[in-house]
Amino acid sequence: MAKLNRARRAATSPNEGEQGATEGAALSRRDLLAGAAGAVGGALLTGIPGVAGSQGAPAAKARPVVPADPTKVQGAPTSAVGKRTPFFDPARNPTGEVTGNSLTPIEKLSGTITPSDLHFERHHAGIPSIDPERHTLMVHGLVDRPTILTMDDIKRFPQVTRIHFIECSGNGRNAFREPKPDMTPQKIAGMSCNTEWTGVPLAVVLREVGVKDDAKWFLAEGGDACKMTRSVPIAKAWDDAMLVWGQNGEPLRPEQGFPLRLLLPGWEGNINIKWLHRLEFGTRPWMTRWETSKYTDPLPDGTAREFSFEVDAKSIITSPAHPDVLKGKGWRPINGIAWSGRGRVTKVEVSTDGGTSWHEAELMNTPTSKAHVRFQYMWNWNGRESILLSRATDETGYVQPTRAKLVEVRGIGTDFHFNPIYGAKVQADGRVFFHGET
Q1: By three-state DSSP, how is residue 377 classified?
Q2: What is the helix (H) or strand (E) element at residue 198, kind and residue range?
Q3: Rg of the chain taking only CA atoms, in angstroms
Q4: Are 154 and 279 in contact (CB under 8 A)?
Q5: What is the rounded CA–CA span in Å between residue 370 and residue 266?
Q6: Which of 140, 162, 174, 338 has CA 20 to 30 A from 419's CA?
Q7: What is the pTM of this model?
Q8: Taking the CA of residue 234 as centre, how many other CA atoms within 13 Å lie in the half-sphere pointing to its CB?
Q9: Where does residue 3 rank: exposed (0-12), middle (13-18), buried (19+ CB within 10 A)?
Q10: Alpha-carbon distances of 332 from 10, 80, 239, 357, 425, rounded to whole Å
Q11: Per-residue pLDDT, 61
Q12: How far is residue 100's CA from residue 202's CA, in Å, rounded to a whole number?
């Protein structure tokens, strides 16, 4: 009973033992001010000085002020747009890049759907501002009926909603080339995100314009300042390609291609052309600068891989991961995500001894084709130094390789499609660091 009473006092007082805030006591002026601030909006709370930061958080960052007993203070009203709790503030990083990227904080997320505002970015000429009422898609080349479609025209076709990941083909380059202990999952693999997309199957449009039998490729061109262009085999168009305008229940975010994007499930991010405004059909690839000088992969024998579209099976442990600190021995989940551009992930295995033995993890959601799946493995930490690893297997039988094997096959200078087995090193003191040498 004494323990229960202490717990009650702690729950109703910002600091244990503070007078005037225990259960049943009169509300203080501080409580009322905190409640009033909440009524204006949770975002304002972040700027009010409060109690000291929690363990593991930067000392200079104060925790939001909230009422000691929220049952004694009127809550906030409805608002036009909901906000995240001020106790959770994930962010992409870095910011301010016009020709560059920003990474998703994958270690801070749960489930498999990436919030739209945290989806990674990769730009070659910044984010264009486009009026959807003026935006059009030109479809021409080897077609019976060259056509210019407005957004309204495109939305009149039968619609579908599907969940697929998009991953930048350079995702993981720094972790592969120069693995460092202080790398977080965001820095290691923060350019892979999973989204619910809404649009029209590209095959529907192909039938509408009458694509000719001798058309084997098509060129997709974006409406940004660099006019990103990539050649795509027409078989992908007939298979599962989509023209998408919806993302997680709302229009595409501008940085994700508003108002129209080409979606090629399972294929490298660059070829999923954003701000799509032209499709041209022909007999062979166009060999644009983006598939010759860029997005080709040098190999040890002096040749280069071209049109290496598919994302290979991969996985990453998101918890525990740097900069986590384990507090005491005992059971805890090893948690992460896995995906494959070849189809469904069928199995994820976890090792807690650096790869000496492997154990099958639980898949926390039903795996679907070319989409993230979350996994967990319950681990009883004994307080000793441990190396945690994960590896994925997809429905084609492909197994995620070690870094040493990937270097052997493609060389240390390989530039895209990094999918080696990675993990975390847990020290005896509980501190966690990235482990990239496998």
Answers
A1: strand
A2: strand 192-201
A3: 25
A4: no
A5: 5
A6: 162
A7: 0.85
A8: 20
A9: exposed
A10: 25, 39, 42, 19, 15
A11: 75
A12: 29
Bond preceding residue 94 cis, omega within 30 of 0:
yes
d(CA 256, CA 92): 14
Q: Please, which residues have CB within 8 angstroms of residue 126's CB and are 6 or more apart in sequence? A: 98, 99, 224, 225
Residue partners of 420: CB distance under 8 A and separation at least 6: 172, 176, 400, 401, 402, 403, 405, 406, 436, 438
Q: How many CB atoms lie within 10 A of CB 424?
A: 25
Q: How far apart are the first and last CA of the chain?
A: 51
How many helices (H) and strands (E) are present in the chain, helices listed first? 9, 23
| Token duo for residue 265 | 């499930």
* pLDDT score of 138: 98
Tell the burial category of 297 from Cβ atoms under 10 Å away from its Cβ (0-12, 13-18, 19+).
middle
CB 274 within 8 A of CB 228: yes
Domains in the chain, please, with CATH?
2-72 (no CATH), 116-295 (3.90.420.10), 314-435 (2.60.40.650)
Outline where DSSP puts E strands in 202-296: 217-222, 229-233, 242-247, 250-251, 261-263, 276-282
383-405 as b/e, with b when 16 or more CB fall inside 10 Å? eeebbbbbbbbbeeebebbbbee
Mean pLDDT by 10 residues, the chain (438 residues): 40 37 41 42 36 41 90 93 92 92 97 97 96 98 98 98 97 94 97 98 98 98 96 98 98 98 98 98 96 90 92 98 97 98 98 98 98 98 98 98 95 93 98 96
Strands 136-141 and 276-282: parallel
CA-to-CA distance for 121 and 185, rounded, in angstroms?
A: 16
Helix (H) / strand (E) element for 100: namely strand 100-102
Q: Which amino acid is at 287?
A: M
